[in-house]
C-alpha cells in the first residue's frame, strides 16, 4: 500500500533512480588538502570551500580535510569558517592539485576561555538554562504571525560514477558498470556540490503568503505563483502545494522536529539530556551577536536523532543559528544523510522565527551499482508581521492556490527570489525539459505514473483508463471477471468529474456497471454535489464502509470463494460542504436493493406471530448524515481535486447517522443506525509511536441481519490494519458494539541496542484488537428457518458477554519493506473454521 499521495509523489521521484542520466564525459578537476589554523596548525573543522565565481563547493571534515571534484574550475578557492577570516587561495588548471590552507583568527573571535565548574561540560549548564527560557523565543507564543515565503525544491540523480577497477597488463582499467551506464553518457546533466555530474529530474519554485495563528491553532498558505519542471510528473497545482512553506516548517523549540514524517527529538526539547551528549566548542560572533557554539550528538549513534551545532546568544540564550544532520547509522530507510540548517531572526517582543531554512537529503543507493538521488529544499521568509491574527474563517482552506497561479509575468521570479539564482540553477530548468523528452525516460515516467495512481491518460480526450488494480479477478460466482473503467481529469473540466466502469463475469454471464458524476459548487468553502448509480456483485461483511481506503484488500476480496454473495443495485446523491477548519458535513440520499445469491429469508410481519410470510429480498431508502471533525487535518486542493493527509497531532472524529425511510407499501425496511469513530496517532517520547482507532455503534431498530454491524474479518495471509486479522468473513453480526484497535511501534528502541542486529534497522511493534457487543432477541427471531424455495436459511452468530480479543507482536522494516505479525486469538477459539494463531505479512514502503 502507498501510505499517502505525498509519499507516492516522493516515491515517484525516487523510482526514477533506476533510470539515471549523465552527460558525456567532461574534464574533472580534483582539489584535495586540509584547512588549518595559522596560529597552532590545528585542523579547522567543517570549513566551507567554494570555487570563486562558480556554484560548486564542499565542506571540510572534522579535521579540516577536504576533497572537491568539479568541472567548473576558477582562478581561486574561497575558504570560510566562523571565527576566521575568509581566504582566497590561487588555483591552477592542473587536473589534480593538493593545497594546505592556513586561516587567521578573525578580529571578533574571542580569546580562549576555559570554564571549570561542577556538572561537567559547561554546554550542559547553558542548555539547561536555555530550555528554561525557550518559551520566550518559540514563535508559537505569538498570537499570530505571517510572512512572504519563497520555496525551492530540487531533485537530482547523483552518484552515477560507479566504476570497477581491474588489472590488465599491470594497468588499472576504469569502466562503468551495468546497462544503465550505457545510457548515462548520452543525456544532459549539471554539476552538483561536489563537482560530480548530476541530472535534474524535479525542480519547483513557489512564491506564497504564509499565515499562522495560535490558540486556536490555524495555518494558511496562499500560493501566489508556481513553476514546476519534472520528469514523469505533470505540472499542476496539487504538487506545488506539497513543496510550499506549509511542508517546510521546522521548529527546534518543540520537543520533536518532523522531518520526512519522522519525529526527531530536538536538541532543545525537554528530553535532550536523556538523548544527547553535548560539548561547548567556543564563543564566537554570529552576525552582530556573541554566541555559544555547542556541538551535540546522540548518545547512541543508531538512535534517530540529530548531530550538529547550535549557536545560542550569550545574552538571552536564544537560538540564533543551527546546523544539523542525520546520517545512515540512524534507523531511517533509503537515506544516506539529511541536513537541516536554519538562520533565525529576532522579532519585536523577543520571539525568533526562521528566516532561512535549508534541507539537503541524500538518498542511499538501492543496490551497490545503482546511483543515488539528492534533494534540496530552500525556504525563506521576509516581510514578517506579528500579532495580527486573521478571523478564523480566513484560515480555511489551509492551502489555497491563487486563481492566476500559473500566469507568471516576465521578470516575476527575479523579484520574488530572495537571492539571485545561479546560472547552473537556471540551466537546470532547461535540462529537465531535455531529460523528460528522452524516449526511455518518457516511457519510464508513464509506467511509474500508471503504477502510482492506477490510471492511464488517453491522448487528448482528457480521459483516464483504470484503475489497473481492478481490471481482473476470479471467483466462484463470476468466474473470470474483467473490468474497464474511465474517468475524466482536470483538463476535461475544472468543476465536473465523470466516472464509470463496466464489468463482465464469464461464469454468471452478467454485466455489472457503475456511473457517477461530481460537480464543484464552490471552492471556498469547499462544496461538492455528486451522483452514483451501480449494479454489481457484493459480499456480506466486506463493504467500502468497513474497508475504508484499503483498495488492495477490496480488490483481493474479489478473488476466491465468495461466501454469502448478493447482487446490489444502488443509487445515491450527496452534498458535502466544509463548514469550518477540519469540519465537514455530508448528507446523502441513497436507495439500494439486496438480492441474495445464497439461502436467505426473514419474517415480513414479525409483530404478528400468526403471519409466517417471508421475504428473501428487500430494499432500503436511506438518509445518511455524516459529520467529520479533523481540526489538525492537512488538505490540498487544486482544480477539481481535493486530497486529505489526515490529522497529524489531534484526533479525527466521525459521526454518522443513517435513517432508513418507511413508505406505505412497506417495500422499504425502516431503521436507525448510529456510528461514532475516533482515530489518533501520538508519540510516546523515546518509546515510539502509538496509533489507535476507537469505535461504537448502535442500531435500535429491528432489521434483517445484512443491515447489522458486521466487523471486517481477514482470511488472507496478509496483515490488514483496520481488520480483525484472525476473524473469518461474516463470523459475527451485532446491533450494538464498542471496539478498539491499538498499535504501538517501538521503532528501533530494542534492536538498535543489539550490535549485530542494529544494522538491519528492524523495528518491533505490538498490536491489540478488542470488540464487545451483542444482539437483541427480536433481531435473532427475525431470521426465518427456510427461504421461499424451501432451502434452510443460514443464520449468524453474535458476540456474547465475552468480547472478541486478539493480540499480536511483530517486526517491521524487514529489508526496508516487509512486516511480519504474529497474532493470537484469545476468545471464541472453538468457533468452526477459526485459526487461533497465525503469522501474516504485509509490505509498506516507508522511511
From TrEMBL:
InterPro entries registered for this protein in UniProt: CarboxyPept-like_regulatory (IPR008969), DUF5686 (IPR043741)
Give start-end of the signal peptide: none
| Keyword flag Protease | yes
- Protein name (database record): Carboxypeptidase-like regulatory domain-containing protein
> Which SUPFAM superfamilies would you find in this protein's record?
Carboxypeptidase regulatory domain-like
Molecular function (GO) terms for this protein are: carboxypeptidase activity
Q: Has UniProt tagged this entry with the keyword Protease? A: yes
Pfam families tied to this protein: CarbopepD_reg_2, DUF5686
Q: Which organism is it from?
A: Rudanella paleaurantiibacter
Keyword terms, alphabetized: Carboxypeptidase, Hydrolase, Protease
Amino acid at each position: 500500500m502507498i501510505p499517502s499521495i505525498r509519499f507516492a509523489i516522493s516515491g515517484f521521484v525516487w523510482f526514477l533512480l533506476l533510470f539515471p542520466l549523465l552527460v558525456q564525459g567532461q574534464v574533472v578537476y580534483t582539489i584535495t588538502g586540509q584547512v588549518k589554523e595559522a596560529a597552532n596548525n590545528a585542523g579547522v573543522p567543517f570549513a566551507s570551500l567554494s570555487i570563486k565565481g562558480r556554484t560548486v563547493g564542499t565542506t571540510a571534515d572534522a579535521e579540516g580535510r577536504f576533497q572537491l571534484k568539479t568541472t567548473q574550475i576558477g582562478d581561486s578557492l574561497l575558504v570560510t569558517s566562523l571565527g576566521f577570516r575568509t581566504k582566497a587561495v590561487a588555483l591552477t588548471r592542473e587536473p589534480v592539485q593538493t593545497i594546505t590552507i592556513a586561516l587567521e583568527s578573525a578580529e571578533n573571535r574571542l580569546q580562549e576561555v576555559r570554564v571549570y565548574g561542577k556538572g561537567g561540560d559547561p554546554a550542559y549548564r547553558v542548555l539547561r538554562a536555555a530550555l528554561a527560557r525557550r518559551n520566550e523565543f518559540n514563535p508559537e507564543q505569538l498570537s499570530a504571525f505571517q510572512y512572504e515565503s519563497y520555496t525551492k525544491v530540487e531533485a537530482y540523480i547523483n552518484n552515477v560514477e560507479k566504476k570497477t577497477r581491474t588489472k590488465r597488463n599491470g594497468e588499472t582499467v576504469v569502466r562503468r558498470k551495468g546497462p544503465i551506464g550505457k545510457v548515462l553518457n548520452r543525456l544532459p546533466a549539471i554539476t552538483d556540490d561536489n563537482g560530480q555530474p548530476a541530472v535534474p529530474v524535479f525542480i519547483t519554485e513557489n512564491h506564497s503568503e504564509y499565515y499562522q495563528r495560535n490558540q486556536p491553532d490555524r495555518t494558511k498558505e496562499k500560493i501566489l505563483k508556481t513553476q514546476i519542471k519534472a520528469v514523469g510528473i505533470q505540472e499542476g497545482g496539487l504538487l506545488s502545494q506539497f513543496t510550499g512553506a506549509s511542508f517546510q516548517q521546522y521548529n527546534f523549540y518543540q520537543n520533536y522536529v518532523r522531518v520526512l514524517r519522522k519525529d526527531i527529538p530536538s536538541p532543545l526539547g525537554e528530553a535532550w539530556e536523556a538523548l544527547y551528549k553535548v560539548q561547548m566548542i567556543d564563543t564566537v560572533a554570529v552576525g552582530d551577536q556573541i554566541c555559544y557554539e555547542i556541538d551535540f550528538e546522540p548518545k547512541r549513534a543508531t538512535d534517530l536523532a540529530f548531530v550538529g551545532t547550535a549557536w545560542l546568544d550569550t545574552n538571552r540564550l536564544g537560538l540564533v543559528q543551527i546546523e544539523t544532520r542525520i546520517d545512515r547509522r540512524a534507523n531511517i530507510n533509503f537515506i544516506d544523510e539529511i541536513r537541516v540548517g536554519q538562520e533565525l531572526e529576532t522579532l519585536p517582543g523577543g520571539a525568533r522565527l526562521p528566516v532561512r531554512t535549508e534541507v539537503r537529503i541524500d538518498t542511499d543507493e538501492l543496490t551497490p551499482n545503482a546511483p543515488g538521488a539528492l534533494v534540496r529544499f530552500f525556504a525563506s521568509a521576509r516581510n514578517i508581521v506579528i500579532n495580527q491574527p486573521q478571523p478564523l474563517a480566513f484560515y480555511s482552506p489551509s492551502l489555497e492556490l491563487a486563481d492566476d497561479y500559473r500566469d507568471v509575468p516576465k521578470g516575476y521570479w527575479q523579484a520574488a527570489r530572495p537571492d539571485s539564482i545561479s546560472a547552473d540553477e537556471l540551466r537546470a530548468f532547461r535540462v529537465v525539459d531535455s531529460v523528460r523528452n528522452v524516449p526511455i525516460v518518457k516511457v519510464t515516467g508513464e509506467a511509474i505514473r500508471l503504477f502510482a495512481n492506477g490510471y492511464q491518460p488517453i491522448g487528448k480526450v482528457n480521459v483516464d483508463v483504470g484503475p489497473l488494480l481492478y481490471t481482473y479477478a476470479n471467483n466462484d460466482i463470476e468466474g473470470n471477471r474483467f473490468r474497464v473503467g474511465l474517468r475524466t481529469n482536470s483538463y476535461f473540466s475544472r468543476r465536473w468529474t465523470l466516472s464509470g466502469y463496466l464489468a463482465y463475469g464469464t461464469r454468471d454471464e452478467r454485466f455489472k456497471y457503475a456511473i457517477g458524476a461530481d460537480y464543484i459548487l464552490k471552492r471556498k468553502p469547499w462544496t461538492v454535489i455528486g451522483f452514483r448509480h451501480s449494479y454489481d456483485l457484493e459480499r456480506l461483511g466486506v463493504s467500502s464502509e468497513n474497508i475504508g481506503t484499503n483498495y488492495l484488500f477490496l480488490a483481493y476480496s474479489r478473488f476466491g470463494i465468495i461466501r454469502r454473495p448478493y447482487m446490489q443495485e444502488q443509487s445515491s446523491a450527496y452534498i458535502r460542504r466544509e463548514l469550518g477548519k477540519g469540519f465537514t458535513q455530508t448528507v446523502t440520499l441513497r436507495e439500494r436493493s439486496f438480492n441474495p445469491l445464497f439461502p436467505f429469508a426473514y419474517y415480513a410481519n414479525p409483530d404478528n406471530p400468526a403471519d409466517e410470510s417471508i421475504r428473501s429480498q428487500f430494499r432500503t431508502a436511506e438518509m445518511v448524515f455524516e459529520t467529520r471533525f479533523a481540526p489538525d487535518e492537512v488538505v490540498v486542493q487544486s482544480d477539481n481535486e481535493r486530497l486529505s493527509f489526515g490529522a497529524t497531532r489531534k484526533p479525527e472524529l466521525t459521526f454518522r447517522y443513517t435513517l432508513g425511510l418507511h413508505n406505505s407499501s412497506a417495500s422499504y425496511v425502516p431503521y436507525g443506525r448510529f456510528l461514532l469513530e475516533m482515530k489518533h496517532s501520538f508519540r510516546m517520547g523515546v518509546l515510539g509511536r502509538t496509533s489507535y482507532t476507537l469505535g461504537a455503534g448502535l442500531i435500535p431498530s429491528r432489521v434483517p441481519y445484512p443491515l447489522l454491524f458486521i466487523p471486517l474479518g481477514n482470511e488472507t495471509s496478509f496483515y490488514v490494519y483496520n481488520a480483525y486479522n484472525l476473524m473469518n468473513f461474516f463470523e459475527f453480526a451485532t446491533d450494538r458494539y464498542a471496539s478498539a484497535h491499538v498499535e504501538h511501534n517501538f521503532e528501533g528502541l530494542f534492536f538498535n541496542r543489539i550490535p549485530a542486529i542494529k544494522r538491519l534497522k528492524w523495528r518491533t511493534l505490538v498490536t491489540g484488537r478488542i470488540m464487545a457487543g451483542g444482539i437483541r432477541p427480536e433481531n435473532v427471531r427475525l431470521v426465518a428457518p427456510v427461504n421461499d424455495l424451501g432451502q434452510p436459511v443460514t443464520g449468524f452468530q453474535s458476540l456474547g458477554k465475552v468480547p472478541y480479543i486478539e493480540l499480536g507482536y511483530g517486526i517491521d522494516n524487514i529489508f526496508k519493506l516487509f512486516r511480519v505479525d504474529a497474532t493470537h486469538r484469545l476468545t471464541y477459539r472453538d468457533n468452526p473454521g477459526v485459526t487461533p494463531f497465525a503469522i501474516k505479512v504485509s509490505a509498506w514502503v516507508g522511511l
